[in-house]
Prior knowledge:
Elements: E1 5-6, E2 8-15, E3 43-49, E4 52-55, H1 61-64, E5 75-78, H2 98-105, E6 110-116, E7 119-124, H3 128-132, H4 149-160, H5 163-169, H6 174-190, H7 193-196, E8 201-207, E9 214-220, H8 226-234, E10 256-260, E11 266-268, E12 274-275, E13 279-280, E14 289-295, H9 304-308, H10 312-315
Parallel strand pairs: 4-13
Antiparallel strand pairs: 1-8, 2-6, 3-4, 3-5, 5-8, 6-7, 7-10, 8-9, 9-14, 10-11, 12-14
Amino acid sequence: MVRATCLALSFAVTAALAAPSLSFAASMGDNPVSVSGIAGIDYYVWQQVGVSLIRNEAVPLSPILQGNLASPGGNVELFANSELPGPGFETYRDLSNPGIFAAFLIQPRTTVAGTLNGAPISIRSLNGEDWFTPFGGGAPTPAYGANNLANKWLSDFFGFYNLNTILAGAGFTPTDIANARLGLFAQFLTNNGFPRLSDPNISYVNQAAPGAGIEIGLAGGDNFLTPAIQALLAGPLGRPDLVSIVPPNMQASELVRVEFNGLPPQYLYSFTSVPSGLSTTDGTESYNTTFQVTAAAVPEPASLGVLALGGLALLARRRR
């Protein structure tokens, strides 16, 4: 079977920092990749060695991104400093703090950039501007119920796992369910939830043909959300008796921002994964599952009229 076309001709990984930016340049062959910047902080490269994943920022980038769902291979982690004890992880832990929220809004996005079937593509980590800017425009807000990506993600999570029905079956009133949703949103806002979902691990980027959907593999782990829901029931909601009703092994990918060939940014995520057959050896990271998401390569039908009127700028996110 011929593997779908992967990121071709060139790659670049960049981060807009006060320090010198880092960059890659590589062909699809074995040409060496030149790197400058701060490897190991803004990005990690996880190389496949047998069934293990080993951190190694010295390896060429292009072979890392040539996998597929059946054989995802290694991955490149963007915004890796979201998991460091200094800038990132602890700095952005409590987004209810106005100063911390303001800092996360302008956190530089780390980017993999290149071409796919001759068209430019950028794959980025997320920052607060992505999560909290209202879809119709306006000032970013961390408010529960706002019309933004943070609230949409929470709604999609509850819908995918049918949590409203599960909670109602356990005797929760509509007000109780609303409080549970608010409580989970607050947990994510004040305990590094949204930054933790902002550093995608890119395993592969494939497109079978020009115009076809773009398949992106996101390396992740299983059972990410079940403990969070159980802790919410046992703690803030005061219902430890209901911990057992939480569906086992609730999963969620990290989110990825994709900009392809002039189209508006797309924010992709999934709650379904398949085993990758891989794992790290350090006991702290897993990547034993792969979430596959698909980016559109052509405008959605509903947006064609808007694009024809030159309204693309109205749909695009304000760049940092």
